[in-house]
Structure formats: structure tokens, C-alpha cells
Amino acid sequence: MKTIQLITISVLFLLLAGNTHAQQGTVTMKLNYAAAVPLGTFKDFVGNTSFRGAGGEVMYHFNNKFSLGGAAGYQDFYQRYDRALYKLNDGSDISAVVTNSLQTTPIMVKAQYNFLENSAVQPYVALGVGGNVVRYRQYLGEFADSKTSFGFAAVPEAGLFVPFRKQSSAGFNIGAAYNIMPYNYGDLKNLNSLGIKAGVSFILH
Question: Helix (H, G, I), strand (E, B), or coil: what is residue 9?
Fold first, then answer.
């Protein structure tokens, strides 16, 4: 939690550091494709990188550097393990194929700060904080375990924004994020992952 607080304070400090007004009042929508690499016990559960993800954002631009809005995403993790011998809770053994499936849907408030607002390529930092809808499913032969829950999510992010034209809030973006998602169920202790996203933003207003 101290790490999350430090990240929050650092990013908010950067967000408030600049003040230009060329794009004041602009509202944009961003659509992203996303992939995620699971970490820790989450990697043990789902194994492979998920390439089944997407996200969307609606941001209000106070100026060329600072924007604030809402973001939502979806990531689907799935792994099927070959038949093996597993021990059940009652102490008995079962030979079965195990299928693990988990989906995360974070819904967050997001702030973003763009550096070099007049540049053709603009590095940025961002922070999203909010909740996370988690759908957990595990199939062990004929036995199934499923749970849907709601938890905390924080997503610090860094990347590059390439505007369609000079001083525009619309353009392409590519970024990397650390998805912080506390979770405690079964053998899982968290759902943390490294994310990579790419997308495009359009001006709504």
C-alpha cells in the first residue's frame, strides 16, 4: 500500500507541474488493444501471456499537458493443463485435466500528464485508480469452482503519444503499465501483471 501511495503522489505532482491552455476544454475518447503478462502466483495460475484485451477512456483536457477522466478495460486469461494427479480438499486424489479461466474488468478514474506538448512525439505518464470486477473459474475434471468479486485496482502507466497534427489532442499512443490488482482466493495472492497497450484517441468535443 505504501508503494501505491508513493506512485500516486509522484504522478499527481507531475500532472500539476505544467500549465498551458491551447487545448483547454477538449474531450477525447481513446480505444486501446491490450496484452498482459501475469506475475507471481497469477502466472502459476494462467501461465501464458494474454493477448485478449481491450480498453477505452474518455478524458477531459484541461490543457495540452494535463487530462483527467474515466477508463475501463477487459483482459481475458486462460490456461489448460495436461492431465495429471491432483489432491482434493477431502484428501483423495483425482487424475484430471485442469482448466483455469479468469477475466479482469478494471473501472477507474485516470489522470495523464504529457511532456513536450509541442513535439511530434510526446512521452507521458498516467495513473488510474478504482475498482476491478474479477471472474474466476477453475475446472478440475468434473469439479468446478467459480467466483465473481470486486476489488481494488491501480494502474501506473508510461508511454508515447503521437498527435495527428501539432497541438492536437487526437492521435496514436503506445504504453506500458503495471496492473496492481490485490486478490486472495484459492492459490492466488494477487492478479498483478505487466500490460502493453496501443490505440488511438479521437476528439469528441
Answer: helix
User: Is residue 167 in some structural domain?
Assistant: yes
Domain that holds residue 15: 2-75+106-128+156-203
Which residues are CB-neighbours of 48 under 8 A, at least 6 positions away?
79
Looking at residues 47-72, what average pLDDT do you find?
93
> Would residue 25 count as lying in a domain?
yes
Number of structural domains (the chain) is: 1
Residue 146 lies in a domain: no
What average pLDDT does this structure show over 150-178?
91
pTM, two decimals, is: 0.81
DSSP string across 16-71: TS----TTTTEEEEEEEEEEEEE-HHHHHHH-SPEEEEEEEEEEEESSSSEEEEEE
H helix runs in the chain, sequence order: 2-15, 40-46
- The Cα–Cα gap between 110 and 27 comes to 14
Domain CATH for 177: 2.40.160.20
